[in-house]
């Protein structure tokens, strides 16, 4: 018999609705003294089975739910099956498989595997655990991934702060197989990008922008193109290859720019300039000097991790957009990316409207985009949607 977590009266509805996060406040009592990481049954106040999950008394999310079927153990077969289901989307539906492919294999709640992200970069995989229960099953996960994807190596990347939130000590390390070579690269839209999966940002590369880079590149031929927050050069290098007249890539991180320069060389692209700057300051400097661009991409990092930080985050987006409008020539294209999950598409559009009115510029949204489809959104956990990308014309 597994331990039972019994919900307070009238608190079961979100979990019958298959939302996977059970916060302490919804729980009436726990029966059977489960250890942190143990399997538990979630039960309604009236005694009905709701779902099965993994318990963690140290996390605000006391139970993460993985299965809504009764009597299904969360064992190796279960996780292998969940991963195989995630892979069918990438391989059979989206056709992302192939030599030197880069794609997200599994995206946590979006793939009904709360607390685990797996990316594939050619023959290597990176795994990121953000929950104790699934992190403590790493042997199981590694064995399932080996069986399903036959990689040369699997590397663990850790996110700062997870230890404290979940009570689990994790360190970046090789989990299995050979360490990744320093010149590991993937093919994206026919271009080659280096991926430093041991030291690069996040899990090594921003796979979520793959289709947005291709879409924006279509607008770039003959244009003056600014890629602000370029990381390893994703947007700017796509634009250069598409035939942009000039490309300026900006980032604050030297290792990121080093990767970007190497990526330019790897793809035989020469008309690209890179500058290490604070984008907030530098956009102002460019505007003061009278520089103009026809396409400006803004792809800043996440600005808010909790609700309290939203007003400050919106201020940051507002500031960036005010500066971008100053830099844009008439009929220019503004690409506004926002990976802050707590800021919605509506918030972003509202901010853009305010900035446009202030600047006395007419702005038309020509495309509302999201992440590439290997970053799906589970309809029962829409918090799993986070990336917005607005493409607008600025008159
Ligand atoms: N557009 C990129 C991803 C950008 S990630 C791509 O397509 O791959 C965000 C980037 O912003 C990171 O590379 C980080 O180094 C950079 N960054 C964060 N704050 C910054 C700042 N104030 N000025 C310049 N760069 C900054």
TrEMBL record:
SUPFAM superfamilies: PUA domain-like (SSF88697), S-adenosyl-L-methionine-dependent methyltransferases (SSF53335)
Keywords from the UniProt entry: Cytoplasm, Methyltransferase, RNA-binding, rRNA processing, S-adenosyl-L-methionine, Transferase
One annotated Gene Ontology cellular component of this protein: cytoplasm
Family matches, as CDD domains: AdoMet_MTases, PUA_RlmI, RlmI_M_like
Record carries keyword rRNA processing: yes
InterPro entries: PUA, PUA-like_sf, PUA_sf, RlmI-like_PUA, SAM-dep_methyl-trfase, SAM-dependent_MTases_sf
GO molecular function: methyltransferase activity; RNA binding
Subcellular location: Cytoplasm
GO biological process, one term: methylation
Location of the PUA domain: 3-88
Keyword Signal: no
Family the entry assigns: Belongs to the methyltransferase superfamily. RlmI family.
Protein name: Class I SAM-dependent rRNA methyltransferase
